[in-house]
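Weekend entry, working from home. Most of the wet-lab plans are on hold until the incubator is repaired, so I used the time to fold the two sequences that have been sitting in the queue since the last round of cloning. Logging both here for the record. First:
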Amino acid sequence: MSTDTKQANSKNGKLLVLTPGLGAISTTFIAGVESIRRGLAKPIGSLTQMQTIRLGQRSEKRNPLIKDFVNLTPLEKLEFGAWDVIEDNAYEAAKLANVLKVEDLEPVADFMKEIEPMSAVFNQDYVKRLNGPNVKKQTNKMELAEALREDIRNKMKETGSERAVMIWCGSTEVFQHPSECHSTIEAFEQGLKDNDKAIAPSQIYAYAAIKEGVPYANGAPNLSADFKALEQLAHNNGVPIAGKDFKTGQTLMKTILAPGFKSRMLGIEGWFSTNILGNRDGEILDDPDSFRAKEVSKSGVLDTILQPELYPDLYENLYHKVRINYYPPRGDEKEGWDNIDIVGWMEYPMQIKVDFLCRDSILAAPLVLDLALLLDLAKRSGQSGIQEWLSFYFKSPQVVEGHIQEHDIFIQHFRLKNTLRILGGEKPLTHLSENFDGSH
């Protein structure tokens, strides 16, 4: 990985964080950042703000915070902008999302009320359970893309920002496979002009960001920037991209537990997962086409971690089932329930039950922060295209063609930190990064 030190050190100036979607996740993120800046909260869950990074041998005792080691933009220099089909400002949207308690939201109400959503690129064909009046009216999808590009430029000027990143915090669109228009940049741009039905709104946002030189991350399971046309455009334009689908609740637990079972060579016969949630995301996922996109994202984790082709005796016949249930009374307080049937010595069966009562947006908000800061760092460090080292944050990590997704969270974490070491001018670590003279 090549690093332009001059660019990496150039963190001066404001960074604009743009979120398509001003709902539960984005408002929780914005309110949290402002609360932290005012000394009202701590950035729990954020690696960039709270985690240390070991440099050199353990005996050297060099363990700075990541934010003090690599040149990340300080939180004080973050600005915010968003698009949404609902006209509510960030304060009103946060109240409606009902993630944060009144006593946590009211101290930053003045700040949140100033963030008004820009009119969104939206088509209900792609998100059937959502609608709203704050929608752009341009004639074709290329015009919509140009309108988004103008929004980006205007918001940067309005906020006095020198740089921007875009993190998709919008809804899950219907499941899509890449089509002919996704094969080349030229085909995609022609598809925008022709209003090709294969081009969903999130792809228009991704295109607009990349054309403006703005790093882009996809926090949903949509087909958004993970196809040849936009991957090539990102590479050509020197724009880092990453995705997809924030790894928060149940899948987070799978990527923690499954590597442990595999490391002990315990067999798994079945893994049944069900989710209960009642926020806007749950309502949208109640539509079968949107659920299909999420199901694919959530279901691909175990095979990659467990490698049944290498361990057929342990995992070849694993039955994996995923369910998502919309249950309005639960709101954003999602419940992920797992039944795991494992097999031990002499093929004796055992069971593990996991009941994760999590808060979806509370888990997702620090991911938005980390991705914004790390993608900005990548851009300033001269990186472009798919950033596989950010797989740690996603259910379905975007990888270069020919590469295999890595889902083991511990391997992902090791790769993330080694990349940060390189970007910070240090050597990467391995398990051999200690002396063998018995003194360490």
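Second, folded right after the first finished:
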Amino acid sequence: MRDLKHLIYFENLLQEANNELVQKAKADGKRAIGYTCYFMPEVLLDLPGCFSVRLRAPRCTSPDIATYYMSSRVCHYARSLMERALEGGYNFLDAQMGTETCTATCRFQEHLQQKHLDSVKDMRIIDNDDFFCNLIDVPFKNNDIAYEHFRDQLRVHVLDALHERFGIDVSDEAIMAAIKQQNEVSRLINEIGDYRKLDNPTITGYEFHVIQLCTLVCPKYLILPYLRETAEEMKTREPDLKKEFRCKVVLAGSENDDPDFTKLVESCGARVVCDRFCYGAVESRQIIDVKEGEDPVMAIARHYLSTSNCPRFMPQDEMRARKQRIADLAREYHADGVIVASNKFCEYWSYERVIDTVILKRDFGLPVCSIEKEYINSASGQLRTRFQAFVESVEIKHIQEGK
């Protein structure tokens, strides 16, 4: 396929957290607000005067110093973020909006808070006088009471804090403008992502992963022109005459902000056509619907709780719904199987991955490849062997079924 016009530029934006567009927005006088989890609504961090940055630690392979503070049994993702913070990689942040969802990232975010104890008075991880860190409580249930509690948390710990600290406009009009911008990003990402549903997709999983990540780590108003051009470009992009893949897969699992992992999967013959993982698009890029006369903060609270498929929701009906969701996505995107990848020491996804491995095959007839990996891929040889064997097993299944 013809190379996408902006792909190299998108790839370069992912090399550092403080990328070119982040620096431009800071030069425009906007505040950079970091976050790590889908449960922190990015739309509220993109109000006029500020912009959201979902934190990553690209190319971090040895979080040795962070391990001293967080232990070797904390997931590599949280330790990598801590390592990058200790290196000064997040000094551009004006605030970190955390969520009490994942224990490991909670510990990372607690370390970021300015210390006021004599014993650690010199530990200033984020070298920014204006920096502060807030954490919100996220309900474990998905009902009206939970929506109200979540709304109140967002108002007090996010909106009020941004207004008091930085004078950010948190009026309903400003929030509706942010929702409009968020929905345009979502519409464009969905438009681009729908080309993965074609019999011979005109975009690779790697390319889509790169583009989706850029929408999470770059100021929306600056990345939008590139998204519009890419969506227009996709309308005339022709696929290769010969398919470069042997099967299609849904990639599910925990934090995955490493496009090279997707590239590794695809180099083994499996085209990734759906990204059902943290940092993926199928949940995070759904349109936010605000009913006429509805409090926009309540609409946002409802949206993010009801669209999340995070395994921290443990009721049986929620667990079954998540399996059904993956099966539905496999059908919608015409996938032949599912790869479920969890980060080592990820408590929620370690359980979820094991259950997925059994249920998706038993109840839905989907071939499943289940792996545990580090945050940054360092065992490509072993993973390549696993993926190649999985692709071959899917091909054998097709032969047996006469496909």
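Plan for Monday: verify the second prediction. The radius of gyration is 21 Å.
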